[in-house]
DNA sequence: GTACATTACATGCATCCGCATCTAATGCAA
DNA sequence: TTGCATTAGATGCGGATGCATGTAATGTAC
């Protein structure tokens, strides 16, 4: 049915806009992080080992160029470190600094609180 | 449960990114429209009467300034008309031109096809 | 080895966005 | 009426994004 997709899409659109807006504001005001920046920190915190930029690219919904810049910002802020890759000198490893890990830990509750607020009454959609 | 929200959010994020990317590309290549532009046309096509800019703002997930510019672009492209509002001279009415209605009609199948592809295997989420 | 295609990441560029602000019109109170 | 707050929409500005491209490293064919 054509219309069903449209309804689902509108719902995704609405939830995305609402959540993004809140995340940007809350994370920005309280922790000086953008939504993309937090997302990258969050993925890095989820893995113990260093990640190649390309691996991050698969997990985060950003273009390769956008990710490159987000990581550059995070590095300038002292939250991540970029390191050369031994086996492939084109590659770049990224890992959290202690500051980065701390900042992520501090921002996590804020992030989760926003999700909880938006999705509290949400019907479980996922596959 | 904390983690459930996160999973839902990741799903929303993924679907949004995927759909947006495809919409932007397909609508752009085939009809010279951005996703925001199509969305505005779509809302206008859904109503018979003229719409106040503010009414559009409630339906579209854009800031007021972004909407103002989208409408400006659409007007420059000859797809909509801006008209003064009699009862409140601050207000602005927007309506589709014939070209705008035609362009929307042409782009609709493309739009729906993208949604169908992305949400084809989606479980019915809505409440 | 040389030459060419490909990959990983960085960067120039144009575009679009949201925030803050501006202008003009309206409403409301004294 | 005057004066002030509010509202509708437009716009300046800074920032983030994606696309196309650049650079350097790698792989492959010969």
Describe this structure in words.
The structure is a homodimer of 127-residue chains. With 127 residues, chain A is mainly alpha-helical. The first copy, chain A, has a single domain, classed as Arc Repressor Mutant, subunit A (Orthogonal Bundle). In chain A, 66% of the residues lie in helices and 9% in strands. Chain A is built from 5 helices and 3 strands, in the order ααβααββα. The first copy, chain A, has helices at 2-31, 35-46, 53-59, 64-76, 98-119, and strands at 51-52, 80-84, 92-96. In chain A, strands 1-3-2 form a 3-stranded antiparallel sheet. In chain A, β2 and β3 (92-96) form a beta hairpin. The longest helix of chain A is centred in the N-terminal third of the chain and has 30 residues, at 2-31. The two termini of chain A are 19 Å apart. The model of chain A has no long low-confidence stretch (mean pLDDT 92). The interface between A and B is medium-sized, with 27 and 27 residues. The first copy, chain A, binds a DNA duplex (30 and 30 nucleotides) through residues 21, 24, 34, 36, 52-54, 62-70, 72, 85, 88-92. Chains A, B: GO terms for molecular function: DNA binding. Chains A, B: Residues 1-127 form the HTH marR-type domain.
Keywords:
Arc Repressor Mutant, subunit A, DNA-binding MarR family transcriptional regulator (chains A, B), homodimer, transcription (chains A, B), ArsR-like_HTH (chains A, B), DNA-binding, Tscrpt_reg_MarR-type_CS (chains A, B), 127 residues, mainly alpha, DNA-binding (chains A, B)
């Amino acid at each position: 049915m054509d219309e069903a997709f449209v309804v689902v899409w509108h719902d995704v659109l609405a939830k995305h806009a609402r959540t993004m807006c809140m995340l940007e504001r809350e994370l920005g005001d309280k922790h000086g992080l953008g939504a993309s920046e937090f997302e990258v920190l969050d993925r890095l915190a989820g893995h113990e080992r260093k990640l190649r930029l390309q691996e991050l690219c698969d997990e985060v919904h950003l273009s390769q160029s956008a990710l490159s810049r987000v990581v550059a910002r995070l590095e300038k802020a002292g939250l991540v470190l970029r390191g050369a890759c031994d086996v492939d000198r084109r590659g770049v490893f990224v890992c959290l600094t202690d500051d980065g890990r701390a900042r992520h830990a501090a921002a996590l509750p804020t992030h989760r609180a926003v999700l909880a607020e938006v999705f509290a009454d949400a019907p479980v959609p996922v596959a």
